[in-house]
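Per reviewer request, we include the raw input and output of the structure prediction for the construct analysed in the revised manuscript.
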Amino acid sequence: MALIYHLAREAEWQKALASGIYEGSADDRRDGFLHFSTGEQVVISAAKHRAGERDVRLVAVDPAVLGDALRWEESRGGALFPHLYATMDPKQVAWSQMLPLGADGAHVFPALD
């Protein structure tokens, strides 16, 4: 299965690496789940929710490792988005990397699954 992606702020990600528990952003905690996107959705999600932010880390996860706490739910435009109703252990992450901003102010993404 293809990887799913989360946009983490670097300070929150570093806290998770130190503690072993990623709780997400204030928005994630308010909504009661960690927001994930597919490879097709994440660029739009970044533009909508992290526009112009310099401290954004792209976190890639194999959905199979997240178990039953991962649910696919309707969101923007009726599309199904993956939502994790649990905290996450950073060890569950397949890979992560910082997202630089391009000259146009949009995040520059690597090739995604």
